[in-house]
Amino acid sequence: MVKEPVIIQVSGYQNSGKTTLAIRLISELKKAGASVVTIKHHGHGGKPEVPSGKDASRHIESGASASLVEGEGRLLIQAEKKAWSLEEQISVASQLYPDIIIIEGHKQAPYPKVLLLRDADDRHLLKQLTNIQAVFYWNEEVKILEDGDPQVPFFSIYDSKGPEWLIDYLKSRLKSKS
Questions:
Q1: Which of 23, 37, 38, 125 stands the most exposed, by the fewest C-beta atoms within 10 Å?
Q2: How far apart are CA 117 and CA 144, in angstroms?
Q3: DSSP for 15-28, written as a single string
Q4: Measuring CA to CA, which residue among 159, 160, 163, 134 is closest to residue 146?
Q5: Geometric angle at alpha carbon 117, from 173 and 44, rounded to 5°
Q6: How do residues 53-86 score in pLDDT, each as one tens digit?
Q7: What mean pLDDT is reported for the chain?
Q8: Which residue, among 97, 99, 129, has the nearest Cα to 116 in the 3D structure?
Q9: Cβ neighbours of residue 42 under 8 Å, at least 6 residues apart?
């Protein structure tokens, strides 16, 4: 039986530091020996860019629903259909047998999440989103919001304790799944 991966979301508005935090998590988790797959929501409208003129792109343009290209252990997957639900994306990612799946974006999904707040204007996300495990904030005015939910730790984006806490949280979730 294959164990299910630990799933964590990195959520917040555009330019809140989601990608920066995700990259740091990936790097630290890899150092700890965990395999990580990421799912990123392309929130800029339209389809994500793919290299044009390459054989795999030409296959998709000709009507293939998916194209896989492998070389020296790197596998590139392009797949196209009308829309991909987050559950379908997780299913595809799970086929790679990762220890952890990091979802960047998809704020409304129910998975455990880390929320990044740029400033106090983003505070409504604390009430709108579910399953928040930790909050990372850019502006000290957001620190005041911590009193609203003492169960959820708040960290300054500049404080190394936040990513350390998150790595420990993910490692403990990995241990509980094994």
A1: 23
A2: 12
A3: TSSHHHHHHHHHHH
A4: 134
A5: 95
A6: 777 778 877 878 888 888 898 888 888 888 889 9
A7: 86
A8: 129
A9: 48
Length of the chain: 178
Asked if 116 contacts 105 with a C-beta cutoff of 8 angstroms, the reply is no
Q: What is the pTM of this model?
A: 0.88
Q: What is the DSSP string of the chain?
A: -PPPPEEEEEEESTTSSHHHHHHHHHHHHHHTT--EEEEE--TTSSPPP--TTSHHHHHHHTT-SEEEEEETTEEEEEE--S---HHHHHHHHHTT--SEEEEES-TTS-S-EEEEESSGGGTTHHHH---EEEEEESSGGGGGGGGG-TTS-EEETT-THHHHHHHHHHHHHHHHH-
What is the token pair recorded at 118?
């740029």
> Using CA atoms, how far apart are residues 45 and 95, in angstroms rounded to an integer?
27
Q: Which residue carries 């003129």 as its tokens?
A: 53
